[in-house]
TrEMBL record:
GO molecular function terms attached to this record: aldehyde dehydrogenase (NAD+) activity
Official protein name in the record: Aldehyde dehydrogenase
Biological-process GO terms, alphabetical: aldehyde metabolic process; response to abscisic acid
Source organism phylogeny: Eukaryota, Viridiplantae, Streptophyta, Embryophyta, Tracheophyta
This protein's UniProt keywords: NAD, Oxidoreductase
SUPFAM superfamilies: ALDH-like
Family matches, as Pfam families: Aldedh
Organism: Dioscorea zingiberensis
Source organism, top-level taxon: Eukaryota
Length: 490
């Protein structure tokens, strides 16, 4: 654990010392070279390979996350992201040539990706391995010094990061700072070159307010109520399997991209509910409390929060499946609710748990109005074979990402940006987007000492003004005349 001292003053001093050390390392350009970046990325791959069992154990300790889920949704995704960055990094670091304009002829131009400096990554508890390491490797690949602040709500993973980072990574440029709200506050008081935060909109506002004091740019990966629209014109058996595994197979619903509610037509609702019930029983058994393939609720506070959503007077009688809970084990079974009131808490707050309301409308197109009257979600999903409906959904729904006929798989494609819009966040990452998120795109224009044009310089006579206007309008004749020194006698 990176000690930050006891008390606000000592914690602040220790954090200032850490940031100062990283700032000196960056100023000395230790992190900028290709070799350093590659060495750190390879070290992370080695760390994953050698300590995979430890990371799995930490995920189980913090969330009772099933082994296969932990591997598929966390370990394998970080490994793939790291391997992609290693493969493409040299290419991405090269200056990107861009066209020049007639007004700067003769010249060459390019865009240089340079590291921002010293960056802060604040990660969440629900995917404490993936959502810590993926932004960190993006920051490293871009050539930055990095401080990782893991979530204290996932203490086993936080402690493990603090232990193993110094064993594998350059401690002069990459550090872990553990702690809770007070330590985060102290970190936010420092000057950073970028802050990357994954969490909820409430804390996102605090992050953004703190960043504004130093005009620090931010990436905010927040959440939202991700809708799933299910059209009757779909393969219901396949849709049900994909919805179930995308909701409850993603940390038992504790995921920013998992479905928050379903919208379907009144005439199709019963078929959908039955298909979901059958699939839940097939996947997790008649008593899901005994299933080994479901994560538990992260802590008692979140358990109580979900219980309040479920026990609200106008909501409790809307349960059509599930609802079992065990406070001692912090477990709530997969639960379906049919048509809870739109003004209920469960429909106003992001659920972030194993509860899934189903709303009904007269025709499937009515679902778009429900989605668009709420805050913009991080993801939106549609199940249909209707190509026109797919196109309309894409064109009329504002969301961080859209996936047609599946759930959550958009995060597995590194060629797509991952990020929110509006209330669900700003900025994006994954693949090249991670490299870009932690880079400054510096424009570079190079000219020689030739190509002088008298018309460029005062005094601006009427003839010079005429020539310059034609030149700015893209006239090749004007360019030739300017390079020849016309007007010759003015």
């Amino acid at each position: 654990m990176e000690a930050v001292g006891k008390g606000v003053d000592s914690a602040s001093e220790r954090v200032e010392e850490i940031v100062g050390e990283l700032r000196r390392s960056f100023t000395e350009r230790r992190t900028v070279g290709y070799e350093w970046r590659v060495a750190q990325l390879k070290a992370i791959l080695r760390m994953i390979e050698e300590r995979e069992a430890d990371f799995m154990a930490a995920l189980y300790s913090d969330l009772s996350k099933p082994q296969m889920e932990a591997f598929l949704h966390e370990i394998s995704l970080v490994r793939a992201a790291c391997e992609l960055l290693l493969k493409e990094l040299k290419h991405w670091m090269k200056p990107q040539k861009v066209p020049t304009k007639i007004t700067t002829f003769p010249s060459s131009a390019c865009i240089v990706s340079e590291p921002l400096g010293v960056v802060l990554v604040i990660s969440p508890w629900n995917y404490p391995f993936l959502l810590s390491l993926e932004p960190v490797i993006g920051a490293i690949a871009a050539g930055n010094a990095v401080v990782l602040k893991p979530s204290e709500v996932a203490p086993a993973m936080s402690a493990l990061f603090a232990k193993v980072f110094p064993e594998y990574l350059d401690n002069s440029s990459i550090r872990v700072v553990e702690g809770g709200a007070s330590e985060t506050t102290v970190l936010l008081e420092q000057k950073w070159d970028k802050i990357f935060f994954t969490g909820n909109p409430k804390i996102g506002r605090i992050i953004m307010t703190a960043a504004a004091k130093n005009l620090t740019p931010v990436v905010l990966e927040l959440g939202g109520k991700a809708p799933v629209v299910v059209d009757s014109n779909c393969d219901l058996k396949v849709a049900a399997k994909r919805i179930v595994v995308g909701k409850w197979g993603c940390n038992n619903g504790q995921a920013c991209v998992s479905p928050d509610y379903i919208i379907t037509t009144k005439s199709f609702a019963l078929q959908l509910v039955n298909a979901l019930k059958n699939t839940l029983e097939a996947f997790y058994g008649k008593d899901p409390l005994e299933s080994k393939d479901l994560s538990r609720i992260v802590n008692s506070n979140h358990f109580e929060r979900l219980t309040r959503l479920l026990d609200e007077v106008e909501v409790s009688d809307k349960v059509v499946h599930g609802g079992q809970r065990n406070k001692e084990l912090l477990f709530i079974a997969p639960t379906l609710l049919l048509d809870p009131p739109l003004d209920s808490l469960i429909m106003q707050e992001e659920i972030f748990g194993p509860l899934l309301p189903i709303l009904t409308v007269d025709k499937v197109e009515d679902s778009f109005d429900i989605i668009n009257t709420g805050t913009k979600p991080l993801a939106a999903y549609l199940f249909t074979k209707n190509k026109k409906l797919q196109k309309k959904f894409v064109m009329t729904t504002s969301t961080g990402a859209i996936l047609i006929n599946d759930i959550a798989l958009q995060i597995a494609n590194p060629n797509l940006p991952f990020g929110g819009v509006g209330e669900s966040g700003m900025g994006s990452y994954h693949g090249k987007f991670s490299f870009d998120a932690f880079s400054h795109k510096k424009g570079v224009l190079v000219r020689g000492f030739g190509g002088e044009a008298r018309a460029r310089y005062p005094p601006y006579t009427p003839m010079k003004q005429k020539l310059l206007r034609n030149l700015l309008n893209g006239s090749i004749v004007a360019l030739i005349l300017a390079l020849m020194g016309w007007p010759w006698r003015e």
